[in-house]
Amino acid sequence: MEKLNIGNVCISSVYSREASFKDYRYVACKAAEDLGYDVYRNPENIGATQREFEKLLENKRPIFVLLVGQVNSKVVKDECNMALSLGLPIITLLWTENGKITTATKRLMNTISKATFEKDCSCFGNCEELYKAIQKRLTAYEAERMITTAKFIPQHAQIYTTSEKIINSAKKRIILCQQTSSVMLGSRSGVKHEQEFYEKLINWIKNASKEMEFLHIFSYCETKSELHNTAYNCSKAKDELLKICSNKNNNISLVIRSTNYSIMPCVICDNNLIVPFKLGMQEYNMFLPHYIIDGSSISRIVADIQGIKGKLLFSSDSATLMGIEDFYK
User: Is 203 left (phi over 0), alpha (psi -120 to 50) or beta?
Assistant: First the structure.
């Protein structure tokens, strides 16, 4: 009988330096295969190489299973960063000792991906628990993928509400393109959905770790014209932004740029996307979940947006606040 293949799974590399992890990796593989996945492991697969493993991540865009114990591994960190950059679904399993996550495991997971550690981890203490956890997570992923569809968002308020949800789950990057900048202006007084969106976005930036990215591009003219609009608390937004940009402990890759080009608004959170479009005379917004978007398409979109020309107000690479100060004058 021909084997059913419902998708691809890659299991993070390296086990030899940690007790029992060879067994754990076998169990993780078995749990996924029993559900019908094709599973790739390095170095267990015959003829496997690190280069082939990384090419598989890029070309097959599998579910990435991250097994974390107590031993540091640069290879695993590099693989996880690659999976995050590609927007791959990541299932993280933390080894526990006597039912508790050890200090060493917490420290290691924070260096691999703090956002993943805080938002999306399961635990296991033995092979049986690992098998059940893998099957539960993969089954839940498939169930969510089957019911998640593209959504039309005709109302202005719903754009903020939907954006809020995908911001909360972003583990790697947020790209925000706007005509009038929520970051520079803040939210309008009394407009609840704008306030909640702004607070969620600012908190994400504040709590982001060094492997995470925020790119914001907005219309110079449209935003500048609203600086004296009393509906916005621009002075508070300015103080908040300067505080974030001047924080030496904030390691996030942060880029804020204004442009004189007519800009099409969009929100990208990892590989989730909200985009505007027009049908006939009616304008809509569409939410496209990562389940139904080709990863290479997102990569091209991200590259195109990064290439939009304009005035750089702030970059964490240059770390000068003059551009932001000048904008508010």
Answer: alpha
